[in-house]
Backbone:
């Protein structure tokens, strides 16, 4: 184990895997170094049949492994799985059968000899694999078993890896993101406490992505990310410095604390070359996809059409080059949503983007239907409403349908507690109502969105809206800035101070047909976005 840890510190992950497999062979546990698919499928089928015959209680009530040799071998298998996950190439040759075969071997040892500390992580990985294949019911089952085994083993060695795997790949489909945030934070603390710094910082990365997706105030996220980046440098986890600094840079841009206004990501790898993190080939996919995802967020919220075209072209090149993404699935779902918004916006000028936008919407609809709607429902409704707003005809029925679609999207985002997505939906609705000259309703939606951006602490977006709509400058942020992750909707605030009378009116699309007034004109200036 000490030799393996030394190999890991020197970033020789493939060497650590080879050493682990050779040691297992000497102990009588022979595992193929480069198994083929015809080796993998029989083992998966056998494992699946065996687990289906057992009830959950029969697995979770297994005794702790008492055989010292088997206990050490299972621990070694767990370490090899951990190291193989760190290697993007999956054991040098890109062998996709290696990890599934190892899962099956460790599960078989668990059922035969009893529970080891790494049994929980193995079941979590096996459940994650089932989720990727679309077997959501089985994925949920094995993730629940993994959490039970983790508590039964009472070891913190793999707590971080188990929690991160379960909540980033399986449970986020059925569990609210607000609950996942807390689990990622617990995983980070467990990794830091147990000395597994890589797993801890990997959990910190998942926490930062999930925190941002939840729409919680950005000030705390910036502070947490600053600490994560410092720790990554102190522990020499260079493969995670780049992704963490990229998310930190995006957050600073939102807070209007960055050195550049729109797409430029601030922050460099201090003391290293600017592309130092890309030299770690195993995680170039994570860094690249994280950077593109952050640029997409900034492009849609702050950028011009040219910015959005540039970032989508870069994203398409990544897809064509088959760059493997290692970001958590929560981030990938979010990226698909933002890509859909950008492509719909671009399709208003160029029809070629519309099929791609439709593809993003279909993906989200599929995930909502087959995997879970708890965190994807407002994404689907917002994209549908945005589509209707751009392509709705002049008929009154089409306008009413679009208005209803935006109300549903706003209500879904509010119910889920996603204040930044509710703000975006209100802003898009305001654009639609300005386009059909429903000024009173447009002002109401824009004011609501503006106040939510204030609560989100997206100061750069607030400044952009203030420069475009002068009446928004009279609205100030609430004095109540308390925030607690444990509350159901932690961003909800009251006692707003505003001099605008727009929010005191309850207007609807139907009412606005008779409430038009010449006094409701709005002064609009062109925003200057560099």
Residues:
């Amino acid at each position: 184990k000490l030799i393996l840890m030394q190999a890991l510190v020197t970033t020789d992950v493939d060497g650590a895997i080879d050493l682990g497999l050779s040691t297992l062979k000497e102990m009588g546990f022979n595992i193929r170094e480069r198994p083929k698919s015809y080796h993998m499928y029989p083992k998966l089928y056998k494992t699946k049949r065996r687990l289906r015959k057992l009830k959950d209680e029969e697995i979770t009530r297994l005794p702790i492994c008492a055989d010292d040799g088997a206990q050490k071998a299972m621990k070694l298998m767990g370490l090899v799985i951990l190291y193989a996950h760190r290697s993007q190439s999956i054991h040098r040759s890109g062998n996709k059968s290696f990890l599934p075969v190892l899962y099956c071997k460790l599960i078989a040892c668990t059922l035969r000899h009893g529970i080891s500390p790494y049994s929980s992580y193995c079941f979590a990985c096996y459940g994650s694999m089932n989720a990727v294949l679309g077997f959501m019911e089985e994925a949920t089952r094995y993730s629940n078993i993994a959490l039970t085994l983790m508590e039964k083993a009472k070891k913190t060695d793999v707590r971080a890896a188990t929690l991160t795997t379960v909540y980033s790949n399986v449970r986020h489909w059925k569990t609210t993101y607000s609950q996942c945030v807390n689990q990622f934070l617990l995983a980070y603390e467990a990794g830091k406490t147990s000395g597994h710094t890589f797993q801890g910082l990997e959990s910190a990365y998942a926490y930062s992505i999930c925190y941002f997706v939840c729409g919680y105030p950005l000030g705390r996220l910036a502070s947490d990310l600053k600490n994560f980046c410092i720790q990554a440098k102190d522990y020499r986890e260079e493969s995670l410095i780049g992704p963490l600094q990229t998310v930190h840079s995006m957050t600073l841009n939102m807070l209007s604390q960055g050195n550049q206004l729109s797409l430029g990501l601030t922050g460099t790898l201090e003391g290293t070359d600017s592309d130092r993190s890309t030299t770690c080939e195993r995680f170039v996919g994570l860094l690249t996809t994280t950077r593109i995802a952050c640029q997409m967020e900034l492009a849609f919220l702050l950028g011009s059409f040219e910015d959005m075209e540039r970032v989508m072209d870069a994203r398409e090149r990544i897809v064509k080059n088959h760059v493997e993404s290692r970001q958590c699935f929560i981030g990938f779902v979010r990226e698909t949503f933002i890509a859909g918004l950008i492509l719909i916006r671009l399709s208003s000028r160029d029809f070629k983007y519309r099929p791609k936008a439709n593809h993003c919407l279909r993906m989200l609809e599929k995930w909502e239907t087959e995997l879970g709607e708890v965190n994807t429902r407002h994404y689907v409704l917002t994209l549908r409403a945005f589509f209707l707003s751009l392509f709705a005809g002049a008929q009154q029925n089409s306008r009413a349908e679009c208005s209803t679609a935006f109300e549903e999207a706003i209500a879904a985002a509010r119910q889920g507690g996603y204040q930044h997505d509710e703000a975006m939906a209100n802003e898009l609705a305001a654009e639609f109502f300005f386009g059909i000259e429903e000024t009173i309703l447009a002002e109401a939606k824009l004011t609501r969105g503006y106040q939510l951006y204030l609560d989100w602490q997206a100061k750069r977006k607030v400044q952009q809206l203030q420069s475009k709509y002068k009446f928004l400058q009279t609205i100030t942020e609430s004095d109540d800035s308390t925030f607690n992750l444990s509350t159901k909707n932690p961003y909800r605030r009251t006692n707003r101070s505003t001099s605008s009378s727009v929010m005191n009116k309850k207007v609807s699309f139907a009412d606005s047909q008779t409430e038009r007034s010449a006094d409701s004109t709005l002064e609009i200036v062109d925003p200057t976005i560099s």
